[in-house]
């Protein structure tokens, strides 16, 4: 136990009953959110609370429009009395926004990480933060038109850049040329909704952790590659690693090559400078809109020039993964986007093990997985910013909802 | 908040009063341990507990021989009534063991991280784990001979290698040639005391975090270099990063050079293969026993060959630090051992900023510090393994003490 951990042990003080009730409410809503549906007896067993307390909490969540209860449900495969099934409701949702290089993607995401609607607003590249806010606001307005039954708990934004967690300030988004853009505040002013923002790759990790390839994993390293570079994030000891200000997880700026290429960060030889989606796509004759087919193409490729590019890029990926596993000692390594495609292609060509050069003890038993949620992961992760706040205190959060 | 964090929210169940009392006792003892001495009114203010509860807890700790109370103390510089000063006692201590390449160091460490005694048992190199246990046991027996007034809460071992946290199994210690040596169990059988073991660099971090250059820092990266290589550790969000099994923080195996030197880990181009204490010492004409003078020597050096070696090594250190700050976004970076010496030497020779090539937003405001506890940090850190257990439940821990 670290010094700081000890210092967080605090006795319960005034308002302990309210705090305990909020905590229990958060526990129950969080469980239903992550599982989608649980019986009331599951909740009783999982929380350790008694049946009547769980009943009260579920009734309160139902009253807030957050869950639905199917009283007649019989849990499949179990004997005995029917236990009501508690499911997330569609009455409350989050708006998710993901500005990309050539588009602004807007989604409506329900509890349980369900993407209910999505729209991709194509744009010219290199637009300003103000233009992005205008486009996103228009897309949100369109998406919510006629949606009379759903309450919006807030907006989450997944930004391909460094975002200060405390206030959603985009410190740097080199692919847009943004420096110190208060994106969350701007979108909040434009829409009247509460807005959170964070790094897109970290939100991809949150989505995979809650609903995808990293579900239930306490020590997880995540790396994802897309059109705008390579990012990532880490869960260690069951907690998301944010760093002091929210910029942790920049695996794209891991050094992989001496005297390497110039990187957008101002340094040289970074993973995202040496290994790009554009080059890999071009090597197998695919366009940028075909990124989803890259893995299959790399697996099938037997063109020597393409195989050589993939082998070179895979060697750089191995260095970045070796560093990450040596430093984090994860139990699972998740690869997303074109990094997953690169890994699949390498395996099809009998390449060396991805983690062969990791320190022996840390290598044992590390499982390598592909990200499971595809392109929706940024929307689902952005919505998690909203839902984390909602779950922590549902009544307070909904008092401010649209 | 991550999914896993939410799932740790648990209602208090049976035995809540006992658990709360143990938690409060741990809080008070932990505060006195880290600060050395606090007045009872400080403790009241810091814990938020009421005066009589704090009085009871202090009396219980006094009864266990863990603290002493100076009833007549007047807090310096404060007006008003005297408040009793609560200090750590010398009645309970931990034994610390640090096997190095050429010696076994044994220490007696009091609460508050005070090294009360130390002995360095010189050895031939490349000894077995069994020989190490025999030497350490002899040193411990000698150190405790005649110590009738001190109770030993356990033994902590700082191992230069990968140690599995769950059982103190040394998975690998390449400098000794050890693989899968149950060192903690062996030393426990030899001494009859409870034994914990962990990686030495991580324990250095724990010591610096509790009592040294990292005191009170929630987001801290630590790298230390010694005769047996480079290690490190991380505190993130106030918690020690252990990884899935306890092997996290292997910054010595960060990749820093393409086509680099072979490393003991089986890979190539690792920081600890490229940058060694032996080469730096030799470059300025120092013997291995002069390691403490390396920083001064590098600062003063104007021999071109030595300056060139230091510049080359500093460039590799910069790559490892750039990776670490990009990935962890710390507020403080602490350098220890010969890495601190290398950094001091580079600054004296107007070298480039250590973090110049870090991603802009993560670079802002990172403070670089030298480790403060010197060679005692391994003993202090090893004792922290014992004290963490002691503090978590003093009465139970002392029931099993020698």
The CATH class of the largest domain in chain A is Alpha Beta
Number of separate structural domains of chain A: 3
Q: If interface size is counted as residues with C-beta under 8 Å from the partner's C-beta, which chains form the largest one?
A: A-B, 83 and 83 residues
CATH architecture of the largest domain in chain A: 2-Layer Sandwich
The proportion of residues forming helix of chain A, as a percent range, comes to 40-55%
Oligomerization: homodimer
Strand content of chain A: 15-25%
What's the Cα radius of gyration of chain A?
22 Å
Across the major sheet of chain A, the strand order is 6-5-4-7-11
Structural class of the helices, strands and pairings of chain A? alpha/beta
How does this structure look, described?
- The structure is a homodimer of 402-residue chains.
- By secondary structure, chain A is α/β, with parallel strands linked by helices.
- Helix content of chain A is 41%, strand content 22%.
- Chain A has 3 domains: 15-88, Winged helix-like DNA-binding domain superfamily/Winged helix DNA-binding domain (Arc Repressor Mutant, subunit A), CATH 1.10.10; 92-203 and 377-399, ATPase, nucleotide binding domain (Nucleotidyltransferase, domain 5); 215-372, Nucleotidyltransferase, domain 5 (2-Layer Sandwich), CATH 3.30.420.
- Chain A has 15 helices and 16 strands.
- Chains A and B meet through helix 1, helix 2, helix 7, strand 13 and strand 14 of A and helix 1, helix 2, helix 7, strand 13 and strand 14 of B.
